Each structure stands twice: as C-alpha cells, then as structure tokens.
Amino acid sequence: MTTFRPEAGPGQPPADSVHPRESRPDAPTSVSRLNETIHGFVERWGSVWVEGEITSWNVRAGAVYGRLKDASNDATLSFRLWSSIRARMTDDLRVGDRVVACVKADYYIKGGDFTFAVSQMRRAGLGDQLERLERLRAQLRAEGLFDPARKKPIPFLPHCIGLITGERSDAEKDVHRNAQLRWPHVRFRTVHAAVQGDRCVPETLAALQTLDADPEVDVIVIARGGGDPQTLLGFSDERLLRAVAAASTPVVSAIGHENDHPLLDDVADLRASTPTDAAKRIVPDVGEQRALVSQLRARLTMRLTTRITHDIAQLEQLRSRPVLREPESLIAGRTQDVWLLAARGRDLVDRRVETAASRVAQLRATLHALSPAATLARGYAIAHLHDGTILRDAAQAAAGTALTVTLDRGSIAATSDGEVAESAAPATRTKL
Prior knowledge:
By secondary structure, the chain is an alpha/beta fold. It has three domains: 125 residues, CATH 2.40.50.140; 153 residues, Succinyl-CoA synthetase domains (Rossmann fold), CATH 3.40.50; 52 residues, no CATH class. Helices cover 39% and strands 22% of the residues. It contains twelve helices and 15 strands. Strands 3-4-5-7-6 form a five-stranded mixed beta barrel. Helix 7 links the parallel strand 11 and strand 12. Helix 4 runs parallel beside helix 8.
C-alpha cells in the first residue's frame, strides 16, 4: 500500500492533518482526489510579498496572466491578476518593470496548474533587463542606427529570399507558404539557427554573414514565432544589431507577434509584425499585380480614347469654321484691298517721279545758266596763263606772255602784246 503524504512545510500542520488518500495498485486514487488533496494543502499557505521583474504580461478577458523573474538568477513564477484587482492599481505596468507583489499560491484542481494569485502589485523600479535595453536603445538611436534615411529599400520582386529561422519551425512554414501563395516562382535560401538561448546570437550572426555574402540573395528575413519576452532577448543583442545595420543586403525583422518589439525591429530595414506579415510585405501578390496591370491598361485605354475623341471634336469644330471650310473666301475678301493698295502705290510712285523729274529739270536749267560753257557759247573766251591761272587783269599778261584762250569750241594758243588802251581795245591783235 502506498500512501500519499505531502510533506509539511515550516510552520505548517503535520501532513496527516491534510487527510492523505491511501492508494495501492489495485485501488488507485483518482486524479481529481489527488488534485483536491494538493489544493487543500496549498490553500493553507498564506500570502507573501515577492519582488521580481515582469517578463510576461498577457491580458485575456480583462485578467492578466504573466510571469515574474528573480533579479539575481533565472528563477521564475507564474501569476494571475484578476480584472477587479487590476482596476484598483494606479501603476501602468508592462514587461520589464520591477515590481513588488502580494501573492498567494493557488492550485487549479481541474487543470492541475500551479500559479500565484496577486492581490496587490506596484512598481518597485525599472528592471535591470529593461534598463539595459533602454540604454542600448538610446545609444543606437544617437548613433543613427534607427534613422529611416539609413534604411535600404526592399526590392519590389525579390528573386531569392534569404531566411534565418529555427529548423522545422512554424515561422519557416508560414514564410514559405505565404510567399509561394503570392508568387509561386519565388526562391528561398534558408539557413537554420537557434532562435533562443545562448546559441541564438552566434548562430544568427553566422547565418546573416553567409546570406549577406551571397550575391543571389535580394533580401534577408530573420523570423521567429512569438514567445516570452525573455526568450526574445537574443534579438536585442548589440552584436546582432550592429551586424544587421552593417549588412549590404536589406534585412527584414519578423520576430514574434504584433506586441513583441525587440530592438532588431528598429535597426532592420523593414519591420514585419509576424513571419506571415513578412512574406506578404516583401513578395507581391501575383493576382493583385495582374489586376493592377489590367486596371492600368483600362485606364490608359480610356485616357487615349478620351484624348482622341476630344481631338477629333476639336478638329471638326475647326473644320466647321467658314474660313477653313472655304479658305478662298479669305483671299477673295482681301483682293480688293490689295488692288487698291497697289493702285495707290503706283500713284504715289508716279507723283514722286514726276516731282523729281521737274526738280531735276529746274536744277539742270539753273546749272546751265550758271555754267561757263553758256557764257562761252555767247562768244566770250577765257584766257589762261601757262599754269592755268585765269586772267582777270591785263597787267597779269606782260608783252610776250604765252596764253591759252578757251573758246566755246576748243582752245587756241596766243602771245600777249602787252596792255593796250581802252580806245584801242577793239583793234588789239592776237598773235598766233
């Protein structure tokens, strides 16, 4: 016969007082009776104040189910916070906060789950883990690793996707399935790595280096399913973050669920809320693209049809105008104006020519009247010395001076006999 005897803890009543259930192979106790025995034993425990760091905070139907981690080692415990207790709390708690809580052990009979019910909880300070992450976040932001201008664009249609994830994980299946549903010809190069624990960071770094060196890989996806924030710490490691920032290939972070937010999300070139979301954001949907092409072609056809119809209407409107329907009418209407202007121009030219001819005749008559030739034609002559000087005084030609006498027609040579008296002038002889 085997007797179940829970050991009494310090300050607790003896185990026999818990009504142990005797059992043997031919008469075993039931699961419910065993759970009731454990529940009765645990229910006698009193409340205790405990300090720890919140590593999980899940809200379901108003109640909170989470975990507390010891500040000095990896010991954890599960707790439950009812909505009525939470409503009386003044602190807005979240993962990473260091808290002090009044808890009481509770054993759920139907499920056999052991947890602690929280009656009071308040913040005791920023958790060491969260504090380190916040300091690293501030440092990386100051260095510009979160700057959107630094992030590399994701190619529209990657031909080969590098995937870093756990072996045979749901994240790998989600990315492959959703990507191939959207674009069946997409290719993957998958490198498996530990996604939690001590091997997470070194293996992820090695996989990132391998894929980044592959010229066929267009984009790298680091994917992991959801989990306790404690298990996602590897994706906030400074070594991994700097390696991602230095990678020449665009990197997509697809860690956990929508509420999970490791520092890798801020450093990566694109943050996807889940692995499924990563596949949808980096691979275009072939159906959507075909629909878009059809829509664009329809819009182009409509625009061209509208433009041609508009141009035809404008052309018909222009052709309907009288000046274009009978263009010779424009010329005919201007013919009379051209004829009048031409006639006016001829009259003006004729008058100008007549006026100029009359003026020329007047000037010619004046010039003829003033010309020495006219004087010579009346019988006068002009006497010149040998140097061409015209004689105006008889004293200029002494006796024996050679002279040239210019007549109306031609010139003659003469020699002066000297000055003669006026009475004898008509009888003056010229010696030739």
